[in-house]
Specification:
Length: 354
């Protein structure tokens, strides 16, 4: 199984694989300042909710490590600026804010215990590394729970990229597929291209091909046709934010796939860590939707494909929970009513799967 490494911590800085250049080039950059990490998140050098969370944690660590503060008071004054810079990168993926809150809590704990800046800096580096390691373990657990719902032999569909590139582990949705294949299940994956950024075509197809998992790349407007005629057994996608009632934000185009899945009696699943839950909001109507540049629609990697006109680019849409058959997490599988099952999983209480 091929597992991409989108991000890693090194003594020289945070190293990220530039996902904008895939699949034609594999180029990595080293970032030595939190402002540069923030820019890399914003410009999608790294993307995918869990991976963005890892990058944010490492951004905080590199910011504190390279701070010129000479006292704890000076570092306390600088710390909110680091957090705010990273928080303003991408609004929809709640893993970003989960990671920042975790680093903030760790800093508060440390600063209450000691004024030794070297100790605080090293502890925050270790915390960022721990976030990364935990995401890897989370992916594997999600994969084990979700694999049980995959067909023994059949076609499955995904959307966007929820593989190793998006998480820093084995992936959420693709992790489910990877584990199912390792268990001996014979899966063939239908991969919509995912316009306008082509994460399906450029990234998911690349990961599956590297892992020798059979796939067919399709354009986004072929989804209905293949759900009607292609004997699709299941659909599994990742998530960027899950509201208390189970409404789920994922890459634009996910909602229409879920609606079509219901029409054709194909179960639609979400694979996501508990850190993706946002139980502070009642429904998906309260999820902020990132609006990205028109140029990402009118151009593909710098090549113009449309006139210089305004193009809409909501980066995400929200799938109502009524279309979701189950949500696979590292703590178990949630089913409707999600207002109850998600709350139990968030509290680390097992949910019976019926």
């Amino acid at each position: 199984m091929y597992v991409a490494q989108p991000i890693k911590w090194t003594d020289g800085g945070v190293v990220m694989l530039d996902q904008r250049r895939l699949p034609s080039e594999e180029i990595s950059y080293t970032y030595t300042g939190y402002q540069d990490v923030a820019k890399a998140i914003r410009e999608m050098v790294i993307r995918g909710a869990p991976a963005i969370g890892v990058a944010a944690a490492m951004g905080v660590a590199i910011g504190v490590q390279n701070s010129s503060a000479e006292s704890l008071e000076e570092l306390r004054a600088e710390f909110p600026v680091i957090l705010d810079t990273l928080a303003r990168t991408r609004p929809t993926a709640v893993d970003l804010f989960w990671a920042l809150d975790r680093m903030k809590s760790r800093f508060a704990e440390l600063s209450a215990q000691t004024s030794d800046l070297a100790r605080i800096k090293q502890a925050l580096v270790e915390e960022a590394k721990a976030v990364h390691l935990e995401k890897r373990a989370t992916d594997e657990a999600i994969g084990r729970f979700g694999a049980e719902f995959m067909p023994r032999d059949g076609r499955v569909m995904t959307q966007c990229n929820a593989g190793a590139l998006a998480t820093g582990g084995i992936g959420t949705a693709l992790g489910v597929i990877q584990v199912a294949v390792e268990q001996g299940k014979k899966l063939h994956v239908l991969v919509p291209e995912t316009r306008p950024y082509l994460q399906g075509a450029r990234l998911t197809a690349w990961e599956l091909h590297r892992s020798n998992i059979p796939l067919t790349l399709i354009t986004d407007n072929m989804v209905g046709h293949f759900l009607k005629t292609g004997n699709v057994s299941a659909i599994v996608t990742g998530a960027d934010r899950i509201a208390a009632n189970g409404d789920t934000a994922n890459k634009i185009g996910t909602y229409q796939i879920a609606v079509l899945a219901r029409e054709h009696d194909v179960p639609f699943y979400i694979a996501a860590p508990v850190s993706t839950f946002d139980l502070s909001i009642a429904s998906g109507e309260q999820i902020p939707i990132e609006e990205r540049s028109s140029a990402e629609v009118t151009q593909i990697q710098g090549m113009r494909i449309a006139p210089d006109v305004h193009a809409a680019h909501p980066a995400f849409d929200v799938t109502p929970s009524r279309y979701i058959a189950a949500i696979f997490t590292e703590r178990g599988v949630a089913k409707a009513p999600y207002t109850e099952s998600l709350k139990l999983l968030a509290a680390s209480i097992p949910v019976p799967v019926i």
